[in-house]
Write a structure and sequence with these properties.
This protein is α/β, with parallel strands linked by helices. The protein is 36% helix and 20% strand. Strands 3-2-1-4-5-6 form a six-stranded parallel beta sheet. 39% of the residues are buried.
Length: 181
């Protein structure tokens, strides 16, 4: 395993997931945000934020998905897709993707020189999981910071962390305290 601190990738800390009354609320968004805040100073100039955004014209299975969630068919500049205020002000690099997984060619190009991808954000059971697996397949060491992530609910978060940790040593679940020690 690499000894590089890696590239911190903060996944989808957006209004649509922060709004506790919203249909896509991440139950413990505030706790995940607190974990991200603790991580940011240690990854100065090595942090990327991502945003989930809707495609202009869903295709394939995404059509059925957006039939279920029509409120989300809004352009990338819509308020629900904005990073929450505290992160919007700190995000120097932001990558958008209309997919759950954020392991895009752009993220791969940024992460590969570091050899390690540190993941935080929401939702553990969707976009974090969907980013971790292809990054690990690409040969990148992946650390998922459990207390800097939040799932749709506590049970989904715990199950996703359990699944991710099954991929050791390619993927390792850790905490902010362990990572920053």
């Amino acid at each position: 395993m690499t000894t590089s601190p890696g590239l911190l990738t903060v996944i989808d800390m957006q209004h649509v997931f922060a709004d506790p009354a919203g249909p896509w609320a991440a139950l413990r968004y505030a706790e995940a945000a607190a974990g991200v805040r603790r991580l940011l100073p240690a990854f100065e100039n090595r942090t990327v934020f991502t945003r989930f955004v809707a495609p202009a014209h869903p295709t394939g299975a995404w059509r059925a998905y957006y039939d279920q969630w029509p409120f989300a068919l809004q352009p990338p500049e819509a308020g629900l897709w904005r990073l929450t205020d505290e992160f919007e002000q700190r995000a120097e690099v932001v990558l958008d993707a209309p997919t759950f997984g954020k392991w895009t060619p752009e993220l791969a190009a940024l992460a590969t020189p570091h050899g390690r991808l540190v993941l935080a954000g929401v939702s553990t059971d969707c976009c974090v999981l969907s980013t971790a697996l292809p990054a690990a397949d690409a040969g990148i060491e992946v650390l998922v910071v459990a207390d800097a992530c939040a799932g749709a609910d506590d049970d989904s978060h715990a199950k996703a962390l359990y699944l991710l940790d099954l991929y050791r040593p390619l993927i390792r679940v850790t905490t902010t305290a362990e990572l920053l020690a």
